[in-house]
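Sequence in, structure out.
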Amino acid sequence: MFSDWLPIAAIALFISALIVSLAYMLSKGFHLPALEAWSKVEYRELVVTTVLIAGLALGMGLVDIGVNQLAQGPLNLQFGTVSGTPAPIASCTPAPTPTFSAMYDFAQCYLAGSADYMLLVYNKLLDADRYVAKMTSFYYNIAIPLFLVSASFSGAPYAGLNVLSSLIAAGLDALAAAIFIQSAQSVLLQFFWDNSFRWILPLGIVLRTFTFSRKLGATLIAIAIGTYVVYPMTLVFAAGVYSQPSIMRDITINLPHEPPDLQDTMICNQFVQEFTWLGSITWWFIWYTPKCVGFAHGYWVCMLQEYPKALSLYSKVNSVFLVKYASTLKEYAAVNVNDIYYGLVDRTDPNKGALAAVSHDAMITAALAVFSIIITLSATRSLSQQLGGDSQFYGIYKLI
């Protein structure tokens, strides 16, 4: 790309020089002093533009050499760890000769690597959200028949941890926003790399040739330089900040062993649920109505005689169910509430837990993105003023 834009810029300069030369010849041939004066002014502006392009080419070459000297081999960016596991290293190898692509490679590595790292954290936090949702929604109700009466035990031991669900949701939202920011910056960087010097800069050079469009042309030149040179440099700086161990926090999610899903156990078996839901009275009628319909001493006399048998049989079947899923209930009961809470929140300092680290990392990502945009806009605005272009980018500063 470094070699692509120079011929295009030279062609744009040639077209501008051709237009100004034709105007000068016409002014001499038809004795038009005003057109002659305009041509001389445009020649001076053309010289200024030529010097600007030459200085830009030299400056970009120096920047590229510096980046390549700094890189010297693969560009590695190490991000934080998730539950003790290092995130994948974003690595790329710059071109062996200075082509100005090393800086872009570095910037793209940073954007892609940080997005992948936060996506890894997002998936881990999503697993934690599923775990917490399973535990907080767990509710048990055990009924034990005792002849004519029954005893029941019920509870929701982890309902108090619902606050974690809202904190995890906030962390997921922050990570999603940070991933979107990095992905959007990657798309913008690729767009600037493909178009800023290939189309915007030559168009600005041509438009700067004419008085009526000089301001617009200067503005386009400043935009091309800002987006093609300044913006990736700010991303390289952001990458250096982002990968510092003292800046990014390691994220540790250490939740207890996850009990099995209830739908895979006897508790959620359809037959067990229907049997328990019908209750002992219903099964009393179902089991003994056929026997008591033709009883000589009356239907209800027979039914009352058989009720203790029905209740005993129901209790035995229900006890078998209890034995079958007792191990599952034991696994849920063995989980300590504090272990779940402190698996996401630091035991000694709430500002150092996994949820705090997620918010911190997402905030750093957003802050670095805003820094890159502000520096790019400020440099573009200043350069546009120096070239005689527009200094106000209406609406953009209000967005920021």
